[in-house]
Amino acid sequence: MLEATIKLLAVEGLAGMSMDRVAAEAGVSKVTVYTRWSSRTELIGAALTHLQIDHVPPPTGSVRDDLVAHLEAMRRQYDEVGGMAIIGNCLAEEPASGELLAIIRRSTLLPRRAHFAEVVRAGIERGELRADIDPERVTSMVVGVFYADHLAGLPLDADWAASVVDDVLAGLRL
Cα(27)–Cα(138) distance, rounded to whole angstroms? Predict the structure, then answer.
């Protein structure tokens, strides 16, 4: 049901995503969907949270390698599920719903940012990065390149994540 929700959000947006459509796409009854989630908003939050939980690389002990792994996992996941389309569709509906941006933040964006920031904090603690840097700002620098490059239509090839992290880290090392 969560995968069906993600697919519908990416392909048809919020307008095409109803509890009925999710049930049909998942091959279950509408009652089954409502048994687990009482509203479409709750289901969307669960589906987006599911994406976050399933794609967290384990730490390696190297700030560079961990940031590359997280950024590559993010890129790959967005490609697999149509993540940019999901965000775009949800943002387009935000003025009418008034809640989708909060759901996106709570379910995927902030948890993902927390993982990136934790990698940076660990790098500071191990002495790989300067002690005076802001982990949240570094997270914005790394993650922001993904959105900017994707929107600009730049190629996100096999070496992309490593090159982004190397460029960012060049100014952050001791």
Answer: 43
34-49 as b/e: b if 16+ CB within 10 A:
eeebeebeebbbbbbb
Residues 6+ apart with CB under 8 A from 126: 61, 63
Residue pair 8/22 in contact by the 8 Å Cβ criterion: yes
Provide the H-helix boundaries in the chain. Answer: 2-12, 19-26, 30-36, 40-53, 63-81, 83-97, 100-104, 110-125, 135-152, 160-170
Q: What angle do CA 40, 45, 51 make, to 5 degrees?
A: 130
* Cα–Cα distance measured from residue 30 to residue 93, given in angstroms and rounded to the nearest whole number: 24
Q: Helix, strand, or coil here: 105?
A: helix
Number of domains forming the structure of the chain: 1
Q: What is the CATH number of the domain that holds 129?
A: 1.10.357.10
What would the pLDDT profile of 1-52 be if each residue is shown by its tens digit?
A: 999 998 898 888 877 888 999 999 999 999 999 999 998 888 988 888 887 6
Query: Helix or strand or coil: residue 129?
Result: strand
Structural domain that includes position 99: 2-170
